[in-house]
Amino acid sequence: MSREDPVRWRRCVRHFLWNAFFHPFNIILNVLSVISYITSDSPNGCIMLVLVLVSVCLRFYQEYGSSKATMELSELVRCPVKVQRCAGRVIQTELVVQIDQRDVVPGDIIIFEPEDLFPGDVRLLSSKHLVVSQASLTGESWTTEKIADIREDQSTPLLDLRNICFMGTNVVSGSEFGLVIFTGSKTYMSTMFSNIGKKKPPNDFEDGVCRISYVLVAVMLVVVTIIVIVDYTTSSALTESILFGVSVASALTPQMLPLIVNTSLAKGAIFMARDRCIVKSLSAIQDMGSM
Question: What is the average per-residue pLDDT within 231-236?
Fold first, then answer.
């Protein structure tokens, strides 16, 4: 994603803000702060809102900065591809030019050499001892020989086609000419990723935080309800009973936990950045620490 696309960039910013805010403990603190303001306990509600704001800003700043640095690095990376083009209006001559792989379109005839990446799905036109690695698609370490002059059966699995090379794979040895048939979202790799799904499942750390928050909410509701009922039956003052229940709920809530967790993860991301490693998601710090 390029910074020159403002719509996608704003969507990305909203995504980071939503992930930073939508934390179980942040939601609990927000609910308690609203109840505190309703019951005229403004100082306590203001403190909880400040803690939520600091925690959200810290997480958003770290993930936003990491994503921006990653995109800036990707803009610096250029993968030139040799393309056969025709030049001239009256007498057309075939020229071989180098273009960036992002400028390749269906219908281009591309020349590949060892260590080149395929910028799209390619139909081989000619090949010479071509060996391709499909580990990015299959996960298998061994290589596959590709042959242009071969007729495949209709029952042949897609990844076993020997006259087709797929986006994301690379040339191990040999050379070839190929016709680009699909690029971008129409390639096999893109359709495979879209079928898998874009939403990343939560890791053990995020599951643990959610379980703790759910247990805390359940205990809080039970304890606070009992305390409010008992206090109201003894004092007959509903406002004071609710205020006392909110105070108990605030005491049961680890108000500093989101801030402490995000600060610790951000500190780990800063240490990784000093070693020239960009951490796009703060929860990845915990996964690396558990290995």
Answer: 81
Nearest to 130 by CA among 150, 145, 115: 145
Q: Which tokens go with 233?
A: 């039956």
| CATH 1.20.1110.10 domain extents, the chain | 6-76+202-289
112 near 173, Cβ under 8 Å? Answer: no
Predicted pLDDT of residue 83:
85
Tokens standing for residue 85: 């083009």
Tokens for 84, please give them. Answer: 């056969």
- Return phi, psi of residue 186, to 5°: -90, -5
Provide the whole-model pTM: 0.53
Numbers of helices and strands, H then E, in the chain: 9, 7
Cα gap 204→120, rounded to integer Å? 36
Rg of the chain in Å (alpha carbons):
29
DSSP H helices in 24-168: 24-38, 42-76, 135-138
Longest dimension (CA), the chain: 101
- Could you report the per-residue pLDDT of 145-201, keeping only the tens digit for each? 888 888 877 788 888 888 888 888 888 888 888 888 988 888 888 887 765 555 666
Give the three-state DSSP class for 1: coil
CATH superfamily to which 6-76+202-289 belongs: Calcium-transporting ATPase, transmembrane domain (1.20.1110.10)
Q: Single out the residue of 144, 141, 140, 142 nearest to residue 127, CA to CA.
A: 144
